[in-house]
Amino acid sequence: MFWAHFLHIYQPSTQFPDVLATITQNSYRRLVRLLEERPHAKITLNVNGALTELLINHHHQDVIEKLKVLAKRGQIEFTGTAKYHPLLPKLPKSEIRRQMTLNTETNSKYFGDVYRPKGFFSPEMAYSQSVGEVVKEMGFEWMILDGSSYPLDGERPHDRLFRIDTNDLFVFFRDRRLSLQIAFSQLHRLEEIEDELLKEGRKSNEYVITAMDGETFGHHRPEQLPLLEAILDHASFPSVTISQLFEHFRDTEYVSPIKSTWSTLLEDRKKGRIYPRWDNPNNPLHQKQWKLTEMAVDVVKRSDVKQKGYQKARVLLDKAVQSDQFWWASANPCWHPGMVEKGATMLRDVVVGAPVADKREKNEAIMLYQSIIELGKKLHVENIIEREEIGAIHDLG
Fold it and tell me: In 10 A of CB 191, how many CB atoms?
């Protein structure tokens, strides 16, 4: 049974330097060492350009250099993504393209020729048809989605490839249940994993795709590092990159994936919460955040590139659309006013600094910013997570 391990490592551009240092030491360096010690082990890795720059700017270049070596050895396959980790289905196609291009430029600059992604990871595994269209248009061969995006009832086959029926883009669905069981320390030993696969009726001529945050190992769940080591060493589970699955499987099924994220449940979908932790229609904070986001995108789009202040607003908008502010504002399970305020501040400053924004728009942006801060503290002040805990929260599981 082939096992494709997908790991996603990311920190927001607004991350505190000391938190970045802790995560780098606890997780990134340990993952690198684990792979260095196992030349046979392979993973597919997503590194957002925002994290790449953070590692370079805060003197953690050793991680980048060692990832380059592992990629040259064929142990790592990189994927493309959006540089600043926005929720892509909520952005216009022009912004999606820009985020993808910025990510490719940044990672190509620091990783060099080994950065040749064939696949694409949409932040939060957020999928919509428009995102799939842009991914195909930008030249990627495949993208990874959550199992909840599989559109048909019943058990998903694990012995074939899948393509989107409208544009021929290949898609790979992660095994959500198994991924979460590993990420949340519900499974600790190889025997437990084998039992789970047996219960699911999995066969030796199939493949498994697990996907989770790289920070899970060594930082979120340090006790799970030995399990990852054991999986990578197990002869019955030869590790492959996702692109290598094309070498072993030929049968293809055409599908029309459903809008989803890594956290979307059937109950959420029934209630219209497709992106529950980032755009919950019942969360007044989310509604204000997205209104401010839409204003910021609009004023930059309307601005002339030659106008004074355009470039500053343009660069700030790239960073301001990061998804973290919406995640923390969901209070599901966590709330942090500082992270929400950082995002709202950047969005406000985009509008206030955009050349074409008039006085009314600037005042509205300021009022929305103040409303987000005040309402957030009113709703969730008792659930504040202190700064030391930022970064110890799960994303993909």
Answer: 10
Q: Is the pLDDT of residue 308 over 60?
A: yes
pLDDT of residue 225: 94
Angle at 25 between CA 393 and CA 46, to 5 degrees: 60
pLDDT for res 378 = 87
The Cα–Cα gap between 80 and 101 comes to 9
Q: Locate tokens 């989107």: which residue?
A: 164
Q: How far is CA 61 from the centre of its chain?
A: 22
- Spatial separation of the C-alpha atoms in residues 193 and 203, rounded to whole Å: 13
DSSP classification of residue 160 = S
Helix/strand/coil (H, E, C) string of 174-198?
Answer: CCHHHHHHHHCCCCCCHHHHHHHHH
C-alpha to C-alpha distance for 33 and 27, rounded to whole angstroms: 10
Q: How many residues does the chain have?
A: 397
pLDDT at 312: 96
- 395 band by pLDDT with thresholds 50, 70 and 90: low
Six-digit token string for 346? 């950047």
Among 339, 277, 309, 296, CA closest to 13: 339
> How large is the C-alpha radius of gyration of the chain?
21
The CA distance from 152 to 88, in Å, is 24
Q: Tell me the C-alpha distance between 91 and 83, whole Å.
A: 14
Residues 8-27 have pLDDT tens digits of 999 999 898 999 999 999 99
In the block, which residue shows the tokens 């919950």?
A: 280
Going through 187-236 in order, the beta strands assigned E by DSSP cover 207-213
Q: 286-304, pLDDT tens digit by residue?
A: 999 999 999 999 999 999 9
CA gap 167, 173 in Å, rounded:
17
pLDDT for 333 equals 81
